[in-house]
Amino acid sequence: MMEATVESTIEQSADSLVSRPATGERAPVAEGETVGSPFVDSPKMAMRNVDVFYNDKQAIFDVSMDIGSNEVVSMIGPSGCGKSTFLRALNRMNDTIEGARVEGSLRLEGQDIYDPKLDVVPLRARVGMVFQKPNPFPKSIYDNVAYGPRIHGLVDRRADLDDVVEDSLQRAGLWNEVKDRLNQPGTGLSGGQQQRLCIARTIAVSPEVILMDEPCSALDPIATAKIEELIAELSENFTIAIVTHSMQQAARVSSRTAYFHLGKLIEVNDTERVFTNPEHELTEAYITGRFG
Amino acid sequence: MDTSTLLAITAALAALAYVIGRGRSLSQAADIGGIRKLNSLPFYYGMLTALWCGLPALLLLVLWLIFDEAIIQALLIESLPADMRDLGGSELGLLLNSVQNIANGNSAGITNPDLLAAGQLLVSLRENSQRALAVVVLSGGLLFGVFGWARIRPQQKARFQVEAVFKIVLLLCSCIAIVTTLGIVLSVLFESLRFFQTVPFFDFVFGLDWSPQMAIRSDQVGGSGAFGAVPLFAGTLLISAIAMLVAVPTGLMAAIYLSEYAGSRIRSAVKPMLEVLAGIPTVVYGFFAALTVAPMIRDNGAVLGLDVSSESALAAGLVMGVMIIPFVSSLSDDVITAVPQSLRDGSFGLGATQSETIRQVVIPAALPGIVGGVLLAVSRAIGETMIVVMAAGLAANLTANPLESVTTVTVQIVTLLVGDQEFDSPKTLSAFALGLMLFVVTLALNYIALHVVRKYREQYE
To answer: Cα distance from A113 to chain B (closest Cα, Å)?
Structure first.
């Protein structure tokens, strides 16, 4: 109900924007076409004509784009535009929602991830996810990080597990803060520390792609700055797709930016291009704060 | 005029007071420019007048009814001849009883003129009392009603006063449960103290022998009376343990299936069915245990060459376990459902399977709540009576063998108190001591359980 109202207001403002004569040198864009450069050479993940439905309601319309290796792609757009839904489609997290259905082709290094014969467990180990709200398990800090390696049987000996935990916490920038209290519950950490713990937990499984769904929206500015720093470091080893509401964050952390609007992918371009000279008038309207 | 008529008239009077009070506030409001000038809405002025009229009348009625009997009795004793008056104790009680019989028109066989006269007196006293009651109550109601009516002013804070009265009424209602519990505890406590005067406390708590038959007279042949409660509590624990062994795994797994795996259609069909199981009267479970399960166990045991008594702890425990399954499953279902979806997502996002997520994330997170639910179920099993009365037997065996017949605290309380009892024998009083022990145990369990459940709630809400 809520969502419908939000969307209809967005729709109205968008309509009024579209009916406005196009400004500057931009040519009018054909309906339903993504402008910019959605595709890259030898992509890590390639999505073609993706539709997502919640029961009868379509949330994503015909989205096609690539995510390249070791790049940070940010996904921006107004509330309810479908960016989180699209992100969750990338490691089949939508499977846990009753009535959710994904159509189209989604490939991870050429392999169809919605192949009915494919086991979703190794897929999610390769494509990890960090959520909006920090969600540490009600276990110790150590056990939180060790959870993934344990269930996947990645290590045999306790010493190896200790190494993995320490390494993951180091890379998540949390080691110095928690090394003396690894046996205390993860839920006792501050919000920002919890989110870094969740990132450590994710990288402990050594995924290839990390999906981040508004990872900083529940954090204060200092904790946010730490996470953003961390994302920059992680991009050396991981491919990262991040959904964010903060355009500044998208500008700071990502190399390419995708703009979603009402379930459609409007524009994908280099981040710099999107924030200085967007190709599509809807993108421009959003980043200049005329709606959203 | 009898009391119910009086009550009806008082209610009518209060209703009338409401109408008049409301009318007075309205007419006062009309003089000063509409009801917005009143402090409260006219409804509250009417209500206040009705309360002024009704509450004192009710109070008078209650006080009268409380002291009425005692005063009449005192007057009656006063009228009796001196030799009867001095009898005292139970004999005087008997005399008063026959006077009451005469007054109720049951004078057959009584010829004593003093008693007949007293009977006449009682009848007239009662009539006078009723009349006086009516006069006092109605005039009290009228008087206070008029007083309340006269107090009505536009500035009067009628709403505050009405709400204050109703707040007190609500408080009184919530006190009823507490006062009742307290009363029950105290009555059990005092009877138990009487019991502990004859049987030492430690003999009762640590005694290993239970045979409550006692010689009532010194020359009677009877048991010596042994009041060691250990066999009873051991039997209770044995049966409860069997019940929990059945109920906890089954209930927990049912809850996991319903909350994690079942689709909404299955869930909406199965959950009510489980709850029907909770609605079956325990006496029905009892004869199911006694007539179906116990013979079945005995016969199967005979096939295996085991000596199973026809009333075994196993039969009672199994059926009690089945009875408790919905209790455990519905409580566990609630706490498992309350585990935030974000924790499941976090686990799935790391590539955990559903069963890994349930075993390593969901259940540990829900564990405090599940433990609380199980403790509540234990206290229910310990207090359960009907099934064990019918299926567990009466022999106070101190044994850990579930195939033998044992008895429980509740069964013994029932057998001690059923039938004609004399309340000065330790045999009867021991029932109260058992009840007190049982109450303390289940109270402690409930307290711990509620504490644990509450702590868990705070964690996620």
So the answer is: 14
B203 and chain A in contact, CB less than 8 A: no
Taking the model in full, what pTM does it have?
0.72
CA triple A279-A280-A282, angle to 5 deg: 145
Evaluate whether B411 touches B389 at the Cβ level (below 8 Å). Answer: yes
* B350 with A205: Cβ contact below 8 A: yes
How would DSSP label each residue in B50-91? Answer: HHHHHHHHHHHHHHHHHHHHHHHHHHHHHHS-HHHHT--HHH
**Rounded CA gap, B27 and A204, in Å?**
81
Measured between alpha carbons, how far is residue A129 from residues A96, A153, B160, B202, B350 in Å? Answer: 14, 19, 57, 62, 7
Parse chain A into domains and list their residue ranges: 34-287
Q: If you search the block for the tokens 């707040």, which residue do you land on?
A: B167
pLDDT of the residue at A23: 45
Facing B351 at nearest CB: one of A125, A130, A136? A125
Q: Where are the domains of chain B?
A: 3-156, 226-460
Please give chain A's pLDDT, 292 residues, in tens. 444 444 444 444 444 444 444 444 454 555 567 888 888 888 999 999 999 999 889 999 999 999 999 899 999 998 888 899 999 999 898 888 888 999 999 999 989 999 988 888 889 989 999 998 899 998 899 999 999 999 988 888 899 999 999 999 998 889 999 999 999 988 889 888 999 999 999 999 989 999 999 998 888 888 888 889 889 988 888 999 999 988 889 999 999 999 999 899 999 999 999 999 898 888 888 888 876 5
Using only the alpha carbons of chain B, give its radius of gyration.
Answer: 32
**Pairing state between β A57-67 and A45-54:** antiparallel
Q: Would you say the ipTM is above 0.90?
A: no
> Under an 8 A CB cutoff, do B349 and A151 touch?
no
DSSP state of B262: S
Torsion B415-B417-B422-B424 (CA) sign:
positive
Angle between helices A158-171 and A191-203 (to 10 degrees): 130
**Cα dist from B74 to B65, B85, B134, whole Å:** 15, 11, 21
* CATH number belonging to the domain at A34-287, selected among 3.30.420.10, 3.40.50.300, 3.30.70.120, 3.40.50.720: 3.40.50.300
Structure tokens at B433: 């001591």
The CATH number of B226-460 is 1.10.3720.10
SS3 of B366, please? helix
Give the C-alpha separation, B307 to B148, whole Å: 80
Tell me which residue has tokens 């797994």.
Answer: B253
**C-beta separation of B438 from B410 below 8 A:** yes
The residues with which A107 forms a beta bridge, in sequence order, are A46, A112
Chain A residues whose C-beta is within 8 A of a chain B C-beta are: 91, 93, 96, 98, 121-126, 128-131, 133, 135-139, 147-148, 151-152, 187, 198, 201-202, 205, 211
What 3-state class would DSSP assign to B395? Answer: coil
Q: Please indicate whether, in this complex, the C-beta atoms of A98 and B263 are within 8 angstroms of each other.
A: yes
CA of B458 vs chain A CAs: smallest distance (Å): 13
For chain B, report the end-to-end CA distance as a whole number of angstroms.
59
**Based on the number of CB atoms within 10 Å of its own CB, is B14 exposed (0-12), middle (13-18) or buried (19 or more)?**
buried
Question: What 8-state DSSP symbol labels residue A29?
Answer: -
Task: Give me the amino acid identity at A101.
Answer: R
CB contact under 8 A, A93 and B348: yes
How far apart CA B461 and CA B457 sit, in angstroms, is 6
- CA B68, B74, B78, B80 dihedral sign is positive
Task: Give the separation between CA A145 and CA A15, rounded to whole angstroms.
Answer: 47
Q: Tokens 């002013």 appear where? A: B153
Taking the CB of residue B44, how many other CB atoms lie within 10 A of it? 22
